[in-house]
Queue: 2 jobs
Job 1
Amino acid sequence: MSRPDDEKDCVALPESLIDSARSEASSQDFLSSVAENLRLAEHMADLDEFLASHAADHGQIPNDVVNEVRQAWPNGTAL
């Protein structure tokens, strides 16, 4: 369903990327899935920028702290 601020455009993507997006779109339509993944990529870029800024201001997060967070994360794959 289109929203008033939606804009139509045409892009060419590799077939493998389209296949992957379609397989992810099982519970939502293809275009909504693509849009959501683009929003997620934008948020990840914002997070990378924040972390770089934080590191510049306060230094890198010590490895022991990173390891502690990884171990505390439910599936052990955080960070």
Note: Helices lie at 15-24, 30-58, 63-72.
Job 2
Amino acid sequence: MQEAPARIELRVEHITQLLNTLDPYPFRERDLDPSAEAFILEWARDLPTHQALAVIVHVAGDRRDEAERDFPLALRHFFAARAEQRSRDLRQLFRVGRVSLAIGLGVLAICILLSELVAGRIGDRPFAQFLDESLIILGWVANWRPIEIFLYDWWPIVRERQVLRRLAAAHVEVRPTQARA
């Protein structure tokens, strides 16, 4: 038996409240309003990752217009585009990491060579040891950023991309709500 999807529910007067009014594109390609996007993302992050998602939008009144019919497709399109953007961000981050790593390893190699030269020329004096250690530290510090990228920086991007992909695949439903008396 398949588990019921985790629900994200929104209530609005009209479906266009969820869209960015400054976006000139046709309805199906419009961006979400930033506050609506933040609300949906926060809810999705808090829901279990193993569970499918459903976005239920309750709209005041019982009249259905074209915007309400097209909203499920627009919402899935929006989050799919955001997920693709995060994939591009991840590729760019790894590209920067590879370039940084090449530079860092080059700096480390030069620092090790200079350290060996200093040790061979100056000998075992305290200044030589200071210079030797400083060059080695500089070489490793030059690798700090690529190490940070490859060990830590990519995880948040992957997590957000997973949430965006789940939202792009979510069941989206627009339900009319009756006005309260």
Note: Helices lie at 34-46, 66-122, 126-141, 144-168.
